[in-house]
Amino acid sequence: MPPRKQARDSRTHLGAFLGEQLREIRAEAGYASQDDFSPVIRKDRSVIGKAETGESPPTESVLADWLDLCGVSGRLRVMFEGVTRIARIRENPGQAQAEPFYGAEARAHTVRYWAPIILPGIVQTPAYATELFKAMRFDAAKVAERLEVRMSRQAILERPDPPDITIVLWEPVLHHQIGAGETMRGQMARLVELSDMPTVTIHVLPSSHGANPGLGGALQLAATADAPELLLSDSLVEDQLTNNPEVVRRASSTFNNVRADALNRTGSRDILVEAMERWSN
User: Fold this and answer.
1) Pick the CATH number of 94-280 from 3.20.20, 3.30.160, 3.30.210, 3.30.870
2) DSSP string, 217-279
3) Span 45-73, pLDDT tens digits
4) How far apart are CA 204 and CA 21, in angstroms?
5) Where does residue 122 fall: left (phi above 0), alpha (psi -120 to 50 degrees), or beta otherwise?
6) pLDDT tens profile 220-274
7) Which part of the chain is CATH 3.30.870?
8) In angstroms, rounded to a whole number, what is the distance separating the alpha carbons of residues 209 and 141?
9) 14: helix, coil or strand?
10) How many Cα atoms are found within 13 Å in the side-chain-facing hemisphere of 194?
11) Contact 29, 76 (CB under 8 A)
């Protein structure tokens, strides 16, 4: 299969310049084609193709594997990491906006999530997340990239010192169909499984309570030992990230209010089990 057409000028487009360099180190390492490289790096060929044209710079984990396989280390590796980070910000500033939160989330001692529309990424199954990305009209390569980032966030659940995680779900979220019924059943089963973990507390706010103070949008809060608490709030166009104390305080107050109105841990688990059984029928 011929390589993707290079539509961007590597002399003026940072992503294209990066892609050109990635293509060269791949070839120098003995992988003559993208088809040769794909099974070794365990990524779809389209991911490699879009990285090498600059259309979609690689994620941190893909880049790390790429550099490892091509034997790149030292100052050259640092250069590739820095250029890739900047290229990703330029290519997708909205996604880049959220990335500092993911870093804080990974080392947090306490994380809190309020979800009034869809389940938070930290608990999504691959099937559920894939359906969301497809609905956003992403192509296969972008779906794979976003899915990798989303699933890598869930590593905090298995950390040796996992954070305290509190999740409040508005009950309708459990009934918003994302994908096929089997996708929803698997997602509900995952929630039930997580609700048994000692470091994860899931509350369900019943829809029978009517309007609630959190209907303005989803909230994600990450508290670390080395920085102020960070807030990521969802919006239709672009997520908003801030550590402004006043804004974080208001978000924290909203979270506390919806949690106060939610069912306790046992009652919430019963609702999750009921939802799982409903999607099994």
Assistant:
1) 3.30.870
2) --EEEEE-SSS--EEEE--SS--EEE--HHHHHHHHHHHHHHHHHS--HHHHHHHHHHHHHHH
3) 888 998 999 988 888 888 999 999 999 99
4) 49
5) alpha
6) 999 999 999 999 997 655 678 899 999 999 999 999 999 999 999 999 999 999 9
7) 94-280
8) 41
9) helix
10) 26
11) no
CATH class label, 14-91:
mainly alpha
Helices H / strands E in the chain, number of each = 11, 6
Give the distance between the most distant pair of CA atoms in the chain: 63
Q: At what angle do helices 34-41 and 60-69 cross, to 10 degrees?
A: 110
The strand order across the sheet containing 164-170 reads 200-205, 164-170, 110-115, 219-223, 230-233, 240-242
Start and end residues for every CATH 1.10.260.40 domain found in the chain: 14-91
Token duo for residue 260 = 């106060």
DSSP E strands: which ranges in 78-199? 110-115, 164-170
| Alpha-carbon span 213 to 130, nearest angstrom | 29
Dihedral (C-alpha) 263, 266, 267, 268: value to the nearest 10 degrees?
Answer: 70
**pTM summary value:** 0.75
Distances in Å between the alpha carbon of 75 and those of 60, 72, 273? 17, 9, 52
- SS3 breakdown of the chain: % helix, strand, coil, rounded to 5? 60, 10, 30
CA distances from 143 to 16, 212, 238 (A): 21, 33, 18
Place of tokens 């250069």: 79
